[in-house]
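testing teh design pipeline on a random one, pls ignore if ur not involved
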């Protein structure tokens, strides 16, 4: 029955293709790598497992600010808006650009200057708002990209796009691509870990943002949570000892190997690898989550919230600990940046929660000698409008979604420090020089990790997919020579 069922999985075309190409591939493999070609590889043999060229980054910490921070109120200083505050956005600037359903019905689009003071900081003279005093102290370690743009105008497609390279669900996330392409540097921890700020509201986050898509499931991001059980379903149930679990996994693995021999489904290998990883994580995860050995001056650096598990500050500190232990891609999510109204008050809260810890992470990595090979990224899914959503008053306003321009910053791992790249027009409405499309951004990240974004592909449903879809280029001017 099993043989008959497995045979129905393949068409005649599959049989002929697999036979002819498979024999040739086996012959070539036996010459280039005799041990692996004859079955000497581990259950993790689905990985590509090595960079295409020498990387400048060994790991990535991506501080994702979900909801889209207002670049005009944080990093993209626009003095002209102060002069034109309250006046109508000229049609010559907007040029009929698509708007969201939240502002498309407005009869008026009054320009809004930032109510917050800007100043230049460091030797680089980078402009930073008063809302980010701690970030202002580390600007000479940062590379600001002020010319990012995207194709998506609403949150879910925009988050999906910047995380997976497509606005449509189902593609692998960036962390999954990196795990697939490079493997892991620590066999006791996942190569892709996700940390979400606890008890924050805002635009919903979906697990597909760190999902494996059509890649084998072992490459999906693993979410670590604050509390007694950092990873769901990792602990043994009552009455099950560690030795009993070990024997159970050994027997289960043997059964799955038999199943793999019958139907050759690679997902079986992935499942075995996940079970084995989960068993090892029963020891490694509690150790990584126990931050009691951190000295007091580190807590002072990250801020008082760093002692509260699940806060953004605590997650930044945890990200450094994960990076030290060889986790390759660490993704933090912090919700609450979607300020369609009450922006002057709400953005202060967001910055207070994130500014000190983000800057502390840079300082902490630098003092440990890790910033030189750790890429840190800060940014959201798109920008905010230069005009008010709804009524503009002397004390209150909101900003709508704006895909045409937004700002991010990067640091470490071969990025030019103390550098500002790209620019927007004097209205802060659109990119005027050195635009960086989302796929360019992704291609550059992969490049720093030693991967050619055009070569890192996976064949699915007859097509070879990649993170950058069918375009994108490495932005060489962001990198140190």
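output:
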């Amino acid at each position: 029955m099993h043989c008959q069922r497995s045979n129905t999985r393949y068409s005649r075309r599959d049989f002929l293709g697999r036979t002819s190409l498979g024999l040739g591939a086996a012959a070539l493999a036996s010459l280039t790598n005799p041990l692996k070609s004859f079955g000497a590889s581990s259950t993790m043999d689905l990985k590509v497992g090595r960079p295409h060229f020498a990387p400048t980054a060994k790991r990535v910490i991506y501080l994702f600010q979900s909801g889209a921070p207002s670049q005009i109120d944080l990093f993209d200083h626009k003095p002209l808006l102060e002069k034109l505050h309250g006046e109508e956005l000229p049609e010559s600037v907007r040029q009929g650009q698509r708007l969201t359903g939240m502002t498309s019905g407005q009869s008026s689009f009054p320009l809004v200057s930032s109510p917050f003071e800007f100043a230049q900081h460091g030797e680089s003279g980078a402009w930073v708002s008063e809302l980010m005093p701690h970030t202002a102290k580390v600007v000479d370690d940062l590379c600001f990209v002020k010319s990012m743009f995207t194709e998506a105008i609403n949150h879910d497609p925009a988050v999906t796009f910047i995380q997976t390279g497509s606005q449509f669900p189902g593609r692998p996330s960036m962390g999954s691509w990196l795990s697939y392409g490079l493997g892991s540097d620590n066999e006791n921890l996942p190569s892709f870990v996700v940390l979400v700020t606890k008890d924050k509201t805002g635009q919903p986050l979906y697990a597909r943002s760190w999902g494996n898509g059509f890649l084998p499931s072992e490459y999906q991001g693993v979410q670590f949570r604050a509390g007694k059980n950092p990873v769901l379903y990792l602990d043994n149930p009552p009455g099950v000892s560690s030795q009993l679990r070990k024997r159970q996994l050994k027997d289960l693995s043997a059964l799955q190997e038999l199943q793999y021999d019958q139907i050759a489904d690679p997902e079986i290998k992935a499942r075995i690898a996940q079970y084995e990883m989960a068993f090892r994580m029963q020891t490694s995860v509690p150790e990584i989550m126990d931050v009691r050995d951190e000295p007091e001056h580190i807590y002072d650096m990250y801020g008082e919230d760093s002692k509260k598990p699940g806060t953004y500050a605590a997650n930044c500190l945890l990200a450094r600990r994960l990076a030290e232990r060889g986790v390759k891609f660490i993704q933090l999510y912090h919700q609450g940046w979607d300020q369609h109204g009450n922006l002057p008050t709400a953005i202060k809260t967001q910055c207070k929660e994130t500014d000190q810890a983000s800057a502390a992470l840079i300082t902490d990595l630098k003092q440990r000698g890790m910033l030189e090979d750790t890429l840190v990224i800060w940014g959201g899914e798109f920008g905010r409008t230069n005009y008010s959503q709804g009524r503009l008053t002397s004390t209150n306003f909101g900003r709508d979604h704006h895909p045409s321009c937004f700002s991010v910053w990067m640091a470490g791992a071969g990025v030019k420090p103390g550098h500002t790249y790209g620019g927007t027009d004097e209205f802060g409405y659109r990119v005027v020089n050195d635009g960086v499309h989302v796929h360019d951004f992704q291609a550059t990240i992969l490049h720093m990790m030693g991967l050619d974004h055009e070569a890192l592909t996976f064949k699915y449903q007859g097509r070879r997919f990649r993170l950058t879809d069918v375009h994108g280029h490495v932005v060489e001017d962001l990198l140190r020579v």
